[in-house]
Amino acid sequence: MKIVVLYGGTSTERDVSLVTGRAVAGALTELGHDVLLVDPAVGDSPTGAREAIAAAAIGGKPPEPTGETGNALRAVAGAAVSGADVVFVALHGGTGEDGTVQGLLELAGKRYTGSGVLSCAIAMDKRASKLMFREAGVPTPDWRVVAGGSPGSPAGAGRSEPAGGFSARSCIVPGAPSFPVDLPRDLSPEQAASIAAELGGYPLIVKPNDQGSTVGLTVVQSEADLPEAIALAARYSRHVLVETFIPGRELTVAVLDGEPLPVVEIEPHSGLYDYESKYTSGRSDYTCPAKLPDDVAADLSELAVRAYAALGCAGYARVDFRLDDGHEPSCLEVNTVPGMTATSLVPMAAAAAGMTFPELTDRIIALALR
Ligand SMILES: Nc1ncnc2c1ncn2[C@@H]1O[C@H](COP(=O)(O)OP(=O)(O)OP(=O)(O)O)[C@@H](O)[C@H]1O
Ligand SMILES: [Mg+2]
Prior knowledge:
- With about 375 residues, the protein is an alpha+beta fold.
- The protein is built from 14 helices and 14 strands.
- Strands 9, 10, 11, 12, 13 and 14 form a six-stranded antiparallel beta sheet that branches. Strands 3-2-1-4 form a four-stranded mixed beta sheet.
- A hairpin with a 2-residue loop joins strand 9 and strand 10 (about 260).
- The longest helix has 17 residues, at about 15-30.
- The relative contact order is 0.14.
- The model is unreliable at about 150-175 (pLDDT under 50).
- The structure holds adenosine-5'-triphosphate and magnesium ion.
């Protein structure tokens, strides 16, 4: 089969995507497919699996947000994608995971892996996801939305937005409508105090509404640190979430074609599952299947499938949870293009279910063609 792997891209998760793309391309080549890799940051200049760009190693820090959307349009309209039987989307974050590239593939009449336009768009937007989780009875930490900034434009990032206002500018799709915010970016001390009280007090989590890899996220210990945390998150997103901090354990459940794979537990040495803990080897311990009472594991699996279904996901996805000391789960988010390096969490869960990495990639391709 002729397969194009879209990888790289322009998001802050570019480096991770380069590694995912190469790993997937390697596995698909091993299975005997005819594989080309295309980087939408560049356009339609395909490379073979062997020549594909390597991220030297995923660095300790993500690349700065640029606000650039690259040449995705040219990449999707180009000869390599046109000639492919199916496209494996290995782009994390930004336009590759928010439904935009999926929309281009739809317009080009191409089959592609994973979820469709709407599911990707909702999953990438944490606030929208949380509203859907609530509707579906999936517990999620309580939150408030604060006006953010405009990625790639440090000047724009300083703008504050009136509470309740709609803005015509969006970081991803120029002209796309935005949603009302609960609070302006420059919180008054009274507003900060009332958010903290409503969300159960400090610590609080402050994060961009639509990033991945823990980019721009802060655990805020006191009110004095809130403005800086909001300013940081605002560099990456038009909207900032302030969320109740859930102490406890870090768990994730991969869902493949609507079925849960074994639960993975992550124990980051630093205490926070941040960019470095995710991508620098040896910084976190992983256990799969997680050591959990059977009923808790079953509960997490059921909630993961419910979250996947609530967002209308297809193919595969990874659902992230916190589990408090009373074994109450809280769903943080659904990742529609989860990491797929040979050491990522979805392949780890698949391995625990007896599936090799090439078998997993083959299954994802088969689901795209179904
Ligand atoms: N409400 C919370 N309470 C406790 N920890 C949290 C909370 N929200 C986020 N975290 C921590 O920060 C990490 C990243 O958060 P989250 O999954 O929401 O963002 P992300 O950047 O989209 O991640 P991903 O790389 O999975 O796409 C979580 O895995 C968790 O360790
Ligand atoms: Mg996550």
